[in-house]
Amino acid sequence: MSKMIKxxxxxxxxVLPVAVIGTKMDGQIxxxxxxxxxxxxxxxxxxxxxxxxxxxxxxAITENKSFSINILPIDLVPQVDASGMLSGKEHNKEKLFDxxxxxxxxxxMIKGSILSIECEMVNSLSLVERDESxxxxxxxxxxxxxxxxxxxxxxxxxxxxFQKLKPILWTWSPMKYWTIGEEAGQPWNPENKKLLTR
Length: 198
Fold this sequence. Notes:
mainly beta
């Protein structure tokens, strides 16, 4: 086994799933690429996403209290990448995707998503105060799932078939997009308990 070595902090980001966050502001549909999001709770079903305070998306979520989370397949990497590089303050990102709505007109979702989740913002936490030394400070928004939609090709008898549609993953070091490879094991496998009970 190789030895452990100390690394720089920019290497510590693990492999992260990529989502596109949908919002609407003053009639303008907007999308932002995000890899800092996670499921938080089951009852109620809560998700969290971290958004820079100067972003158009931050203002939209703060004012409208709603957003969508869209998990897209690997063949949409160019559109996902573009939505993360360009600001909604200067560009209309609606034309990147085929958009639909459910109940909330401020939470645009994307047709062709492996999964699209309509969220109502129920809480927020300022992680760091934005100032000259922290220009990229974030707010962590908590959203409650109100509706969820999936591409019919992503559903099988076991639920979502992520291996079939291949969701987008991201790493900082190296800065690359990836996707899911082969199945690596079954979670909650009773056989694995034997590692501690032998």
